[in-house]
Write a structure and sequence with these properties.
By secondary structure, this protein is α+β, with helices and mostly antiparallel strands. It contains 6 helices and 12 strands. It is globular and about 45 Å long.
Amino acid sequence: MARIILFNKPYGVLCQFSAADNQRSLRSGVPDSEVAMSAARAPARPMGSAPPSPARSLRSDFANSQDIASAARAPARPMGSAPPSPARTLKDYLPHRDVYPAGRLDADSEGLVVLTADGALQHRITDPRHKLPKTYFAEVEGVPTAAALQQIRSGIVLGGFRTRPAQARLVAPPGWLWPRVPPVRFRKHIPTAWLEIILQEGRNRQVRRMTAAAGFPTLRLIRYQVGDWTIAGLKPGEWQELPVNLSGGRSGGRGRRRAGPPRRSTAGRHQR
C-alpha cells in the first residue's frame, strides 16, 4: 500500500532535500505533473546493464542558462563579511530520503506539502486532469472587489495561458493561523484582506500571479488542503505519515505523526 507524508512547510524552507537543487528545480517552469509522467513512462533498465549517459533536457538546459545568468547578476560579497546562512530544506525536518513532493511550494509560501515514493500516486496528485482541488489562503494587499473576485473565478491570462476556473471568496483571518517569521510587512494606510482560493491546477506561483493580475498582490500564502488531506493539527515543521490507496484517498489507520523542527535545534526533536 502506498504511503504519503503530509508536511506543514514553514516560511523560508526550500521544497526539496538539497539546497543545491533549488535553482534547477524551481526555475525550470516544467510542471511537476510532467516530471512525474516522464518518470512513469521511462522504461526499466535491465539488471546488470550499464546506466545510460546523462541526457540533455529542456529542464537542465534552461536551469544551466539561468544559473549562469544569476551568477553574472549576483552582487559581490564584501571582503571579510560572513557567508550567507545555508537555506533550510526538507532534510532539516524529514528523516525520509526516498520521497518526493507531489506539487511544490515556493520558499516564501507556507503550508501543506504532500510527499510520496509512489510515482503513479505523485502523478495522480499533480496532474490537473484528475482535478484534485488545492485550497489556499492568501493575505492580499487591499480589499478585492466583486469584479476582481469574479476575474479570479473565471480565469486570468498569465504569460500566454489562461487559468482554469477557480473558486475565490473573501474570508476572515483563519483562526488556526500561526505567526509568520518574519512577519508580513505592515503598512498603516493600506488595508489587507484574506481570500480562500481553490484551484484544480498548480502552475508556478499561480495564486500570487492571479491576485496580482487582479490588482491585489499576495502578501502571505498558505496551502491548507490538497484533495482530502489538510494540515489540520500540524504545526509548522511537523509531519504525518499516512497509508493511502492508489486513488489518492485516505486509507484506514491514523499513521505516524512526528514533529520535525530543524535538526540544528535539539529541543523537542522528532517528538510523538
